[in-house]
Design goal:
single chain, mainly alpha, 4 helices, 0% strand
């Protein structure tokens, strides 16, 4: 009966550490994706002149690294542009 108490404490601590590690990993992945997105967009701007190719490059970068909100903002960019 006595070995169950330390074993249960170890299991609870392991679960808590697992949850905290998972949370930190999600934060790390989000930061890494934002950093990679910024680098990819910068590369698109350097490689292509403003136009269709640059937009396609940025769209592909957003598809890979962007959040849903960023993708939505990018898809609605034409609604806000001032083109007569």
């Amino acid at each position: 009966m006595r070995p169950l108490i330390p074993l249960s404490v170890v299991v609870v601590v392991a679960i808590i550490i697992g949850i905290m590690g998972s949370s930190n990993y999600d934060l790390y992945v989000a930061e890494r994706n934002q950093r990679n997105l910024q680098l990819a967009v910068d590369d698109c701007k350097k490689l292509f002149q403003q136009g269709i190719e640059q937009e396609e490059c940025i769209t592909k970068s957003l598809d890979v690294f962007g959040t849903d909100y960023q993708k939505e903002q990018w898809s609605q960019r034409d609604l806000y542009s001032i083109n007569p």
